[in-house]
Automatic annotation (TrEMBL):
CDD domains on file: FN3
Keyword set includes Flavoprotein: no
Pfam families associated with the record: fn3 (PF00041), VWA (PF00092)
Name of the protein in its database record: COKA1 protein
Main location group: secreted
PANTHER family the UniProt entry points to: COLLAGEN ALPHA, COLLAGEN ALPHA-1(XX) CHAIN
Highest taxon of the lineage: Eukaryota
Organism taxonomic ancestry: Eukaryota, Metazoa, Chordata, Craniata, Vertebrata
Keywords: Extracellular matrix, Secreted
Signal peptide extent: none
Domain (Fibronectin type-III) ranges: 166-255
Residues in VWFA domain copies: 1-133
Record keyword rRNA-binding present: no
Length: 296
């Protein structure tokens, strides 16, 4: 399976989409690069919520591996979600290119780091990792499979287990030109934390707020007026991730001043008055001479 990410993660294909090596290689040749921001935490959440579900092809008995390829430092908290994946028995390999932050790669990756963290100076140099990485991945899968076979157990993989772990009923209210309130009903088992991600639907940098799991409301402020926002509320547990809530709404336009009046005219001054714009803290008044030929 493969997902690309910048501000918003995008699944290119699921684990069950292709069944042969040739099909996968052809899909890679046709892949279109997605540029943009580096929201690695949001991407790892997407992988756990979407790509590692059974209906996307994930098998309960199979080893779960995630290979993260990034060329920059994450603009959100990648460590919290990475720890959740690792607690679920998912092994993370982190590969950095160019401007990747090696300290962050080492935090995100699974132990032992000498086998799971790689860093190269440019994209063409990735080819030098293929042989070694292939051998390491195959060896790790065999080692883990042998251990589980010896114990005759299959590790439970508690992802997206409905109302037990997932909040419901997202409500967006008290919308103004620069703020809105979010409320939701918590799941039966309160999460450790909530990650609330919001960004303009027509493009813009996502912002993130991390809340304690006992909280079920948030006021978003410093928004842009007359803008449609996408909002996601994601519950994070020590050993699982519940389904996220998503909503969309638009902020109101800014209030305008009204009823402009001109009075007390003299040879070099005029007085202006108007009805106030609600919420305005300052006014900018522009004055210029009428163009030649126009009415004075």
């Amino acid at each position: 399976g493969l997902s690309q990410y910048s501000s918003d993660p995008r699944t290119e294909w699921d684990l069950s989409t292709y069944s042969t090596r040739e099909q996968v290689l052809e899909a890679i040749r046709n892949l279109r690069y997605k540029g943009g921001n580096t929201f690695t935490g949001l991407a790892l959440t997407h992988v756990l919520e979407q790509n590692l579900k059974q209906d996307a092809g994930a098998r309960l008995e199979a080893e779960k591996l995630v290979i993260l390829l990034t060329d920059g430092k994450s603009q959100d908290d990648a460590n919290l979600v990475a720890q959740t994946l690792k607690n679920l028995g998912i092994e993370i390999f982190a590969i950095g290119v160019k401007n990747a932050d090696e300290a962050e790669l080492r935090q995100v990756a699974s132990e032992p780091l000498e086998l799971t963290v790689y860093n190269v100076l440019d994209f063409p140099l990735l080819s030098s990792l293929v042989g070694k990485l292939t051998r390491v991945l195959c060896t790790r899968i065999k080692e883990k499979s042998n251990k589980e076979t010896a114990g005759s157990t299959v590790k439970d993989f508690p992802v997206n287990t409905g109302p037990q772990l997932s909040p419901t009923d997202l409500k967006i209210s008290a919308v103004t030109s620069k703020s809105m309130n979010l409320t939701w009903s918590p799941p039966l088992r309160p999460p450790k934390k909530y990650r609330v991600v919001y960004y303009p639907s027509k493009g813009g940098t996502p912002k993130e707020v991390v809340l304690d799991g006992a909280v079920s409301s948030l006021r978003l402020s410093n928004l842009t007026s007359q803008t449609e926002y996408l909002v996601s509320v994601l519950p994070v547990y020590d050993t699982a991730v519940g389904d996220g809530l998503r909503g969309i709404t638009s902020t109101l336009p800014l209030s305008s001043p009204r009823s402009l009046r001109v009075s007390e005219l003299s040879h070099n001054s005029i007085r202006l008055s108007w009805k106030a714009a609600q919420g305005a803290t300052h006014y900018l008044v522009l004055c210029s001479a009428a163009p030649e030929g126009a009415e004075d």
